[in-house]
Amino acid sequence: MSDASDNIAPDNAEGDAKPSPSFDVSEYSETEQQIFDAALAEFARKGKDGARMQSIADAAGINKAMLHYYFRGKDQLYADVFRHTMQRFMDSFGASLTEAPTFAKTLRAFIEGYVSFVRDNELCVRLIVSENLAGGTLVAENVRRMKTTEGAPPRVMVDRIRAAVEDGDIRPVDPDHTILSIVSTCIFFFAMRPTVEVLHEDAGNWDAFVTSRTEHIFELIYRGLAPR
């Protein structure tokens, strides 16, 4: 059970509490970043309800009063961690997606970028999956924001799929269904890794398997979208 004081700021910090920090990690102070990293690990492993502010403070090497100085309560901290996690996902693609000259290269950049993010950010992925399973509103809020943000990976893919259909490069498909299929294929083998390692003999060498799997996903999706 979480501490009842997790969402209550200390009385002596009431007037000094800072607003939520920027989601740009480069603008965080060292202490804020330590809190952020500790909170991500705690939320990813235990979910919002199971996480404790005291555990986060301990992991960050500060006392609980200082934690509440930076983040007024667990709900605010969780929301900030989740939003920043989604921002990290969007930023992880860099310019590879928006500058891809053809649909094939755009699709490859999206698949490779998504797989790389999942592989390199296990805690972030756990947090996103946990929030989905909990049925929280943060998923819908942040995905909706990504779909309407210029340059965000989902928005880029929707626009590129529509353009490719209009140009006759791929067969007519629903962009949202197509993206859902791509994302599902990219994340499934990570979420089910123990099962995959039993079912696929090459998965014993996980890094090599991820590389070959990424190429397979691209070929499967791209060939499946070919005009008929």
Task: Write a brief structural summary.
68% of the residues lie in helices and 0% in strands.
What does this structure look like?
This protein is mainly α and 228 residues long. Helices cover 68% and strands 0% of the residues. Helix 5 packs parallel to helix 9 and helix 5 runs antiparallel to helix 11. It is globular, with a radius of gyration of 20 Å. About 7% of the residues have low confidence.
| SS-derived structural category | mainly alpha
Distance between the termini: 57 Å
Share of residues in strands: under 5%
What is the rounded Rg?
20 Å
Strand runs, count:
0
Number of helices: 11
The H-and-E topology, N to C, reads as HHHHHHHHHHH
> How is the main sheet built?
none
Integer average pLDDT: 86
Instruction: Report the uncertain regions.
Output: 8-23
Instruction: Please state the overall shape, judged from the principal axes of the Cα atoms.
Output: globular
Helical proportion, percent range: 55-70%
Keywords, separated by commas or semicolons:
228 residues, mainly alpha, 11 helices, 0% strand, globular
Write the layout of secondary structure elements.
Elements: H1 30-50, H2 53-60, H3 64-70, H4 74-91, H5 103-120, H6 122-134, H7 137-148, H8 153-167, H9 175-191, H10 193-199, H11 206-224
